[in-house]
Design goal:
- The protein folds into 2 domains: 1-32; 46-142, no CATH class.
- It contains 5 helices and 3 strands.
- The two termini are 25 Å apart.
- 40% of the residues lie in helices and 16% in strands.
- It has helices at 3-13, 19-31, 75-84, 90-102, 114-123; strands spanning 51-58, 67-74, 136-142.
Length: 143
């Protein structure tokens, strides 16, 4: 819960505002776009990404014609997942890290934090994907 919501609920609890006033204030907060992060490396002139898009287009004729894949994942889902990762028990985290290390993935799940996700999103503009098929195009980007 953010500070503005907490302040409104505190004022309601203290009897400084009515329930109707609190409802209007909370509705106004819901309509206000979230603040744009000004962390280092995050451009201040770019809006916060709402979706992670993965698009695959293949011009080659297969069994049913060209292949088209279009995946659109809400960033809120990814952000919530990152926050929920903190609920993973320490023993399970160690097992996850060990399994990823066995598969050659040098990643520590303990370092997964919401601010790291925003940094990852920033670097998606530099992402390139190599595909073995000549007429296949893969795009990964945020919008």
């Amino acid at each position: 819960m953010n500070d503005d919501r907490r302040s409104i609920l505190d004022m309601l609890a203290a009897g400084k505002i009515t329930a109707d006033e609190a409802e209007r204030l909370l509705s106004a907060l819901d309509r206000t776009p979230p603040p744009i992060s000004l962390e280092p490396g995050y451009p201040s002139n770019r809006a916060r990404a709402k979706y992670l898009r993965i698009s695959v287009d293949t011009d080659e004729e297969g069994d049913g014609g060209p292949t088209k894949v279009n995946i659109r994942v809400p960033m809120q889902l990814l952000r919530a997942g990152v926050r929920l990762s903190s609920l993973i028990p320490p023993k399970a985290r160690d097992e996850i890290n060990a399994a990823m290390a066995r598969d050659g993935i040098p990643f520590d799940i303990n370092q997964l934090k919401p601010e790291n996700l925003e940094e990852l999103v920033d670097h998606l503009s530099d992402l390139s994907v190599d595909v073995d098929q000549e007429k296949t195009k893969v795009r990964i980007f945020c919008e």
